[in-house]
Specification:
It contains 11 helices and 7 strands. The N terminus and C terminus are likely disordered. The protein is elongated and about 130 Å long. The strands form 2 sheets. Strands 1-7-6-4-3 form a 5-stranded antiparallel β-sheet, covered by helices on one side. It is an alpha+beta fold.
């Protein structure tokens, strides 16, 4: 259904003629560009050269990632650790969020979904296409005419043709808006994924930082234990020389000292491993070596009740919002699939031009305007099957939402209970540490006076070491629980009023 005619209004003819000319010029330019590109690909001298050895040098700042992550170091100096740098927990989090590869991929995925949204929104506008062709032709009918009229001097006919068409989908039965809404929700999902990764990275780095702190404190505790055991050994030797002690006391002190020295070696090994693990999580350079600058102490308070924390987690957790967005995507895609079985109305306007160089008639042109009705009345059930798939995706999103909601509640409850228990453990361990210090001093004084035994001193030293370790573990358990609780409610600050 359309209206056709030749030699329309002068303005329409001028516009379409200009468009055809521009299209021919653009086609010739694209051909030249493609030829130049092909020549560069075929010419090995114009290919980009591989990175030189100078590019493998380490960055000036070891806290920066490697400048070229696909290159492997080739010299021992390139992997030799530089001087250890102490960083705070916040610095570690900032470095991780800046360098993390997975987060970078998520950001690129978001850019891709944003481009897909712009592609879907482009359907709101009409499309203008053009096609141009220039060449020479000699048909079978031309050859028959040559034989019929004995015309041996005829030559191929030069032909220039071009077409410009303007098209717009007037009515799509809801397919176009459904596709746009689905693309918008996909952008939302990818935005939430970036936020989720940032929160998870913060938790992972926090736990790794606490691991380094714990390993460092265990080294300190082992060194303090060695100092105490060395003092006890000196006391045993002095008493034996004074005729009060025995050789057995000296042997016991030496055995205890050796055991403590072994514990120090193990603690130092755990410290090195924890540091390297943190460097790996931060995606730092090959030469980076870091330590913790923050003191080991409770990280803060949590002033919300358990019920308030659960409700806040339901409101803030991006995982729940992601499942709701996935549900909306499935609904909109189902509507788009159903719309493919309904009538579609398209408006069009086209202009054609034809010029045969050897013909005396010159240039011929024409135009057409109208509307098209397209109705896919039977497709073997493909559209209905696709719609059923999206309905299943909607049900899956709802099920995952319920599952995630239960997981979120459990995470909040677990972290909250652990935080309360660790808080009580800190108080108990701190009191026990003070008592163990006093007991050791009293027992050592008694031993120096020849009243107590070496076994009593060793027992008191072990009790002191155990109390120090228990206090350390209580504090770090509290801090880990606080970090987990912050993650469970989307990393809220530690100071929240009820």
């Amino acid at each position: 259904m359309g209206l056709r005619g030749e030699y329309g209004t002068e303005s329409m003819m001028s516009f379409f003629r200009c468009t055809v000319v521009i299209s021919v010029g653009a086609a010739i330019s694209l051909v030249n560009v493609d030829l130049a590109t092909a020549q560069r690909q075929l010419n090995p001298t114009q290919r980009s050269t591989s990175p030189t050895s100078d590019q493998t040098t380490q960055p000036s700042d070891p806290l920066d990632p490697d400048p070229n992550p696909i290159l492997l170091p080739t010299k021992p100096d390139q992997v030799k650790l530089q001087e250890t740098q102490a960083i705070t927990l916040q610095q570690a989090i900032d470095l991780a969020q800046r360098n993390n590869r997975e987060l970078q991929v998520a950001a690129l995925t978001l850019q891709r979904s944003q481009a897909a949204l712009r592609q879907a929104q482009a359907a709101l506008y009409p499309t203008l296409s053009s096609e141009a062709e220039i060449g020479y032709e000699r048909t079978t009918q031309d050859r028959l005419n040559d034989l019929k009229y004995l015309n041996e001097n005829s030559s191929p006919t030069g032909v220039l043709s071009g077409t410009v068409e303007l098209s717009y989908d007037l009515f799509t039965f809801g397919r176009r808006p459904a596709q746009i809404r689905a693309a918008q929700q996909q952008v939302r999902v990818d935005q939430l994924e970036v936020e989720r990764l940032k929160e998870q990275i913060r938790l992972d780095i926090t736990n790794a930082y606490y691991d380094v702190q714990q390993a460092g404190e265990e080294v300190r505790i082992a060194q303090a234990a060695i100092t105490n055991n060395q003092r006890s050994l000196q006391d045993a030797i002095a008493l034996e020389e004074g005729g009060i002690g025995t050789r057995i006391d000296i042997s016991r002190a030496r055995v205890q000292l050796s055991n403590t020295e072994q514990e120090l070696i193990d603690a130092q090994n755990r410290q090195e491993i924890a540091r390297r693990q943190l460097v790996q999580l931060l995606s730092l350079g090959e030469a980076a070596d870091i330590s913790t600058a923050d003191p080991v102490q409770p990280a803060g308070k949590w002033n919300l009740s358990l019920e308030e924390s659960i409700i806040l987690a339901y409101q803030n957790r991006v995982e729940l919002q992601q499942q709701l967005a996935q549900r909306t995507i499935a609904q909109q895609q189902r509507q788009a699939e159903i719309a493919n079985t309904r009538p579609q109305i398209n408006l069009f306007a086209s202009y054609q031009i034809l010029n045969e160089f050897n013909e005396p008639f010159g240039t011929l042109d024409g135009y057409a305007v109208g509307a098209r009705l397209r109705w896919n009345m039977f497709d073997g059930g493909a559209a209905r099957a696709a719609a059923n798939q999206q309905e299943a995706n909607r049900a899956i999103a709802e099920t995952r939402f319920a599952q995630t909601r239960n997981q979120v509640r459990f995470q909040v409850e677990q972290a909250y209970k652990t935080l309360q228990a660790s808080d009580r453990s800190i108080q108990t361990a701190s009191a026990a540490l003070k008592e163990a210090q006093n007991v050791l001093e009293n027992i050592r004084f008694r031993f120096q006076q020849g009243v107590g035994t070496q076994l009593d001193v060793i027992t008191a030293q072990n009790d002191l070491t155990r109390a120090d370790v228990n206090r350390l573990r209580a504090i770090l358990s509290y801090n880990r629980a606080l970090a987990a609780l912050q993650r469970a409610v989307s990393n809220l600050p530690t100071t929240k009023s009820p």
